[in-house]
């Protein structure tokens, strides 16, 4: 494998305004391509917006969901990839031939659709169905996987994707700065975002504290470190329906080190060159090879009562 130059992006998404969001995606791809990026990764539901969907009926969701790959958004992303000479990862709501609705994230390049992944643990709206499989695909000789937001909080998903051969796991999110029983968690006051040019310090304290980046650092680097993979984390910044998101899109190497991160209080991207040598140099490579699945294969595979509770989803606006 040759070195690969990846950009991870953050931008303020407009609720159910695909044209505006695709324009932001195109703009970032053009700029990242000019800096030599081979791949540009965007956040969960970057094409259509995310949190506003919690208020939608099934009929309203169906109206904005699209088939893949024939839908307009997939074709628009392929066109952007062809124009900018990069591989793109972006997401939106999918509608299949039976009008079943999924949270999808796709990978496209100039030749068309490379991969489609459906979120395994959707919860924003009860009309969205869970995916039922992992996805591993190729980008310029690198084996890649996708896990969307909450999927990454279940550690088995990351390990399974790595065991299927993924060297890179793209982790599109819309996360942080939400209500939670976790100490220090909570929403960011929208007035801090509106006043960010005059008072960036107060907003940065919220974004980097326990509401945001400090929480992320409790677990995200461990996903890369334990599994000896590159983690490409993408997250929006700014207004997302009735919440404020803190961005900090980043790329983490197999040692668990951050090698690129967005730090602007606005639309941004960060680029890192990834190299294959780290994949086997990192401790996680040895840990995976030292596993003794005969001890715990039956334990990990035991059924349990599946119950997903998300604290912020039912919180009052």
What does it look like?
The termini are far apart. The strands form 3 sheets. Strands 1, 2, 3, 4, 5, 6 and 15 form a 7-stranded mixed sheet that branches. The chain has a 6-stranded mixed sheet with strand order 7-8-9-10-13-14, with helices on one face. With 317 residues, it is of the alpha/beta class. The protein is globular. The chain has helices spanning 18-34, 58-64, 72-84, 155-163, 190-194, 200-208, 213-216, 220-227, 277-281, 283-289, 293-300, and strands at 4-10, 39-41, 87-95, 101-109, 112-118, 128-129, 136-139, 142-146, 168-172, 230-234, 237-240, 243-246, 250-252, 258-261, 268-274. It has 11 helices and 15 strands.
SSE diagram, text form:
Elements: E1 4-10, H1 18-34, E2 39-41, H2 58-64, H3 72-84, E3 87-95, E4 101-109, E5 112-118, E6 128-129, E7 136-139, E8 142-146, H4 155-163, E9 168-172, H5 190-194, H6 200-208, H7 213-216, H8 220-227, E10 230-234, E11 237-240, E12 243-246, E13 250-252, E14 258-261, E15 268-274, H9 277-281, H10 283-289, H11 293-300
Helix pairs in contact: 1-3, 8-10
Given the helix and strand composition, which structural class is it?
alpha/beta
Beta-strand segment tally: 15
Low-confidence stretches: none
The gyration radius over C-alpha positions equals: 19 Å
- End-to-end separation: 48 Å
Largest sheet: 7 strands, mixed
Number of helices: 11
How much of the sequence lies in strands comes to 15-25%
Helical residues, percent: 25-40%
């Amino acid at each position: 494998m040759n070195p690969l130059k990846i950009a991870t992006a953050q931008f303020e998404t407009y609720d159910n305004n695909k044209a505006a969001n695709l324009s932001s995606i195109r703009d970032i791809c053009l700029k990242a391509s000019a800096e030599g990026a081979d791949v540009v990764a965007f956040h969960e539901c970057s094409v259509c917006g995310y949190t506003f969907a919690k208020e939608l009926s099934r009929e309203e969701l169906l109206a904005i969901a699209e088939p893949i790959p024939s839908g307009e958004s997939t074709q628009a992303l392929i066109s952007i990839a062809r124009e900018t000479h990069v591989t793109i990862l972006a997401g939106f709501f999918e509608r299949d031939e039976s009008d079943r609705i999924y949270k999808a994230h796709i990978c496209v390049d100039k030749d068309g659709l490379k991969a489609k992944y459906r979120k395994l643990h959707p919860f924003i709206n009860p009309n969205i169905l869970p995916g039922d499989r992992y996805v591993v695909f190729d980008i310029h000789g690198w084996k890649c996987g996708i896990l969307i937001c909450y999927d990454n909080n279940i550690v088995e998903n990351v390990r399974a994707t790595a065991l299927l051969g993924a060297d890179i796991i793209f982790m599109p999110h819309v996360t942080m700065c939400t209500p939670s029983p976790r100490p220090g968690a909570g929403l960011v006051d929208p007035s801090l975002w509106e006043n960010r040019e005059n008072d960036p310090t107060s907003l940065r304290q919220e974004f980097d504290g326990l509401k945001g980046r400090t929480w992320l650092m409790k677990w995200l680097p461990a996903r890369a470190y334990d599994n000896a993979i590159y983690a490409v984390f993408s997250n929006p910044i700014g207004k997302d329906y009735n919440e404020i998101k803190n961005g900090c899109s980043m790329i983490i190497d197999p040692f668990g080190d951050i090698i690129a991160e967005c730090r602007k209080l606005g639309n941004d991207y960060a680029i890192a060159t990834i190299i294959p040598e780290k994949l086997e140099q990192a401790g996680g490579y040895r840990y995976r090879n030292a596993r003794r699945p005969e001890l715990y294969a039956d334990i990990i595979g035991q059924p349990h009562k599946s119950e997903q509770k998300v604290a912020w989803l039912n919180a009052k606006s």
